[in-house]
User: Which sequence fits this backbone?
């Protein structure tokens, strides 16, 4: 299988997940900044034109990072999982992953594209007006604080289990730190968790 990789938080999430799950990925790099992901060759694989995607040996293409990660979890070494070993664990992971995706990743990414990334993205997709960028960023910050308030004495987002929710959150918080959307001061649990995640070897994937 071939992983179509690029800069950005979405490919980082998959690379970290695959590294932690023990699934090697053959990679080819797509020039996101140069718009290669919007050219016919890539669009033929992923008509959404988004990064990343995973092409299987039979030509099947899987896009969307949560779908890619779930697939990698299922084909990875037996006896391990980063989604969940039981229906309850899988439901918990998917619940927190969706909350993080909709509440933090989406407004954070949209806020960046509407402001700092506007020159790069305005010819590629419909964007929120520039005046809405600050509100989107504020929504992401508010949801980070809300998530922080829910974590209690957890080691990871799903208690003591490292899961997809952690990689998604880390990938976007790392991205946010580089585009003027740092972890808010009041998010003490998330700051400590982020430091632990940053020490994991998979961050170099």
Assistant:
């Amino acid at each position: 299988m071939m992983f179509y990789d690029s800069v950005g938080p979405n490919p980082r999430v998959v690379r970290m997940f695959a590294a932690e799950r023990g699934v090697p990925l053959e990679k080819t790099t797509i020039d996101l900044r140069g718009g290669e992901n919007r050219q016919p060759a890539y669009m033929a694989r992923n008509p959404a034109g988004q990064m990343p995607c995973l092409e299987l040996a039979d030509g099947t293409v899987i896009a969307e990072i949560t779908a890619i990660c779930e697939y990698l979890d299922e084909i990875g070494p037996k006896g391990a999982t980063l989604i969940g070993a039981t229906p309850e664990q899988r439901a918990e992971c998917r619940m927190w992953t969706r909350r993080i995706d909709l509440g933090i990743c989406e407004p954070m990414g949209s806020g960046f594209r509407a402001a700092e990334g506007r020159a790069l993205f305005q010819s590629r997709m419909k964007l929120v007006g520039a005046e809405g960028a600050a509100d989107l960023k504020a929504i992401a910050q508010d949801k980070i604080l809300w998530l922080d308030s829910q974590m209690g004495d957890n080691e990871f987002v799903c208690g003591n289990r490292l899961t997809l929710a952690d990689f998604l959150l880390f990938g976007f918080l790392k991205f946010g730190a580089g585009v003027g959307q740092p972890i808010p001061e009041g998010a003490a649990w998330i700051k400590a968790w982020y430091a632990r995640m940053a020490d994991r070897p998979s961050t170099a994937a």
Notes: The radius of gyration is 17 Å.
